[in-house]
Amino acid sequence: MRVTVRLFAGLREVVGSDALIEEFATPDVTVETLRTRLGEAHPQLGPYLSGVAIAVNEEYILEPGTALHDGDTVALIPPISGGAGEAPKILVTHSILDPRALRDAVITPASGACVVFEGVVRNHHEGHAVIRLQYEAYEEMATRQLEAVARETLAAYASREVYDIGIHHRVGMLEVGETSLLVAVSAAHRQDAFEAVLRAVDRVKETVPVWKKEWGPDGAQWQEGVQPKPAAP
Fold first, then answer.
1. Secondary element (H or E) of residue 53
2. Which is more confidently placed, 5 or 27?
3. Structural domains of the chain, with CATH
4. Structure pTM?
5. Which one, of 215, 216, 211, lies nearest residue 81 by Cα?
6. In sequence order, what E strands does 78-161 have?
7. Helix axis angle, 190-207 to 139-156, nearest 10°
8. Given a cut of 50, is residue 9 above it in pLDDT?
9. Which of 59, 101, 169, 229 could be stapled to 82 by a disulfide with Cβ–Cβ 3.0 to 4.6 Å?
10. How far apart are CA 145 and CA 90, in angstroms?
């Protein structure tokens, strides 16, 4: 049995590759079996394996006993740090974000309020200077998790006339003042729109596999993140 293991951010740098191929003589392989194998075969990963989440074929796996199958793609998710025509409501992109386009994508005739949150690169973090940020994502899975966050948020406010939500996350190298995350919510009332936006932003930070490398006067380092808390599929 053969599986591909994808690595991101600091894990990619520790191993020196963005992917590993692991082969097993037996078909009875679980997520936990793979984790053990990786620790033995790649000792440099050992200190990190207890803190990573596991995704198989772009879906978070919560049970270590989950079976793997030949050809599966397994991602190690370290702690995570978001044209013409109508803008898509969910997007991971290297392009500059357009808040007006996202606002127009979620507004409805019944909307009495639309709140648009912009996450912006700032020039400092925890007391030291920041020149720029580099965002990296497991892009296919990030898109699916943004969709899950949007569904989860709408379900949480289903009884409160929250009508629609859009989330755009930019990746790549961003300079101070550039927007990295947009979340837009339309609702009948401003209070519900504000609350739903806040909830969605928090959930993006908790669940979407995006990492930040911070560039400062003394060099670059990956920012510490949080253990992923997957959104419901």
1. strand 53-56
2. 5
3. 2-77 (3.10.20.30), 90-222 (3.90.1170.40)
4. 0.72
5. 211
6. 90-93, 113-120, 124-125, 128-129, 132-137
7. 150
8. yes
9. 169
10. 10
